[in-house]
Design goal:
The complex is a heterodimer of chains A (about 250) and B (about 200). Chain A is of the alpha+beta class and about 250 residues long. Chain A has helices at about 5-20, 25-35, 35-50, 65-75, 80-95, 100-115, 125-130, 210-215; strands spanning about 140-145, 150-155, 160-165, 180-185, 190-195, 200-205, 215-225, 235-245. Chain A has an 8-stranded antiparallel beta sheet. In chain A, β1 (about 140-145) and β2 (about 150-155) form a beta hairpin. In chain A, α1 packs across α3 and α2 (about 25-35) crosses α3. Chain A starts with 5 loop residues before the first helix and ends with a strand. In chain A, about 25% of the residues are buried. In chain B, strands 1-2 form a two-stranded antiparallel ribbon. In chain B, a hairpin with a 2-residue loop joins β1 and β2. Chain B has helices at about 10-20, 25-45, 50-65, 80-105, 125-140, 145, 150-165, 165-175, 180-200; strands at about 75, 75-80. Chain B is about 65% helix and about 0% strand. With about 200 residues, chain B is mainly α. The N and C termini of chain B lie far apart (about 40 Å). The chains are: A alpha+beta (about 250), B mainly alpha (about 200). Chains A and B meet through α1, α3, α4 and β6 of A and α1, α2, α3, β1 and α4 of B.
Amino acid sequence: MRYTNPELLEHLASSYVLGTLAHGARRRFERLQRDRTDVRVLVTQWEARLGQLAVSVPVHKPSPKVWAAIAARTQPMRTQHAPQAKGSWLGWLKPAGFGFGGLAAGVIAASAFFIAMPTLFMSSDQLAMRSGERLPQSYVGLLTDAQGNGKLLVSSLRHGKTMTVKVIGPITPPATGRLVLWAVPASGPAFSLGAVPTSGSSVSMLPDTSEKLLSKVTKLVVTLETDANPAKPGETVVFSGNCAKLW
Amino acid sequence: MKPDPDADTRSLQALIAGAAQGDHASFARIYERTHTHLFGVAVRILGQGQAAEDVLQEAYVSIWKSAAGYRSEVDGQPIQPMTWLIAIVRNKALDAFRSRARRKETELPESGDVDEEDTETTATPAPSAAQLFEQATEALHIEGCMSALEGSYRQSLALAYYQGLSHTEVAAQMGAPLGSVKAWIRRGLEKLKGCLAAQGVVA
């Protein structure tokens, strides 16, 4: 199934979040989420909707042992189980009749298969990223204020339809209006890419692929806008930077 | 966890950002502020006990590992940190619930084979799920909007959400045909989306 029907995707996303998507379909949909940012956006939207229903769920207090176990697993440097761990690891293998030689041979065989035919598992782009040769093909922009302080990092996969905006320096939220990101082509009018957050990061859907929208864009600017739907960038440019092709 | 006499006034979002940078104290604060609510979510699906505590543990370990993945805004819509946390716990609780149900089916195959079309109307709907749904819609000011739906639509949605029941299980609980339950839940979700959008929650 190619999952191109928006209604089907919406239905699957709502069923997944509600929990009514059956076993195999649930796993398949999780794989789809990993590959498709637009599907992740749909899921996040449904999580935001259905999460509201949890408002009436009564609180419960778990045993204090739960935090102790969480802390032990999230602060590995502070746990002192290394000597025992070695013994229990080997001890675990023996009763299972799982020879260490067999385990080692299995790992070597699997690794050799993976190294010999990596394209069976990953795309060429993923391979290049894994080997450290390059980052994925993307459009990126680093926006700074007038003093050159980094404020926003904008990125979007070249053939993707989502854009991530990450705040990398402190931004004072405007008292009135909102901050809007604009793409400025070398020739032609600037167009809006939507509002930007003043903290954290945001991901938004683009009307088309980055390649179609941004291939001729050389500059990105953020302006302060009081109009809900400004047709062109306002006078007050807050941040600016170049739009670069990362390939 | 040591109690902190100085109340941490940082927002949950700021604490998640701290945890994403490896600050374990921020992570401890997240737990302190949210664990009773999140445990409540797990208990609703799994019942009070070891399974719910295991899920809570797994969920917080996942929160620690994936804190950098939290997005405060998606497609122009703000995403509350609690939404993100609840989704993590609910997904893990649902997985544990389904896995337990599968084990029971393996152990007692004759009890797992229910023909929804022939199920008699003997099971009483879970009032607690329905009550919780009603309380939530009141708190969200969408009770009027949602009441446009028939009770069975709301009830099937409540059973699926608050008890983590599958379509088949909801059908068995309500003594209704599986096809009807699927349609009720689908329609219920659509209505909920519209009612919440009218309140400005994820248009």
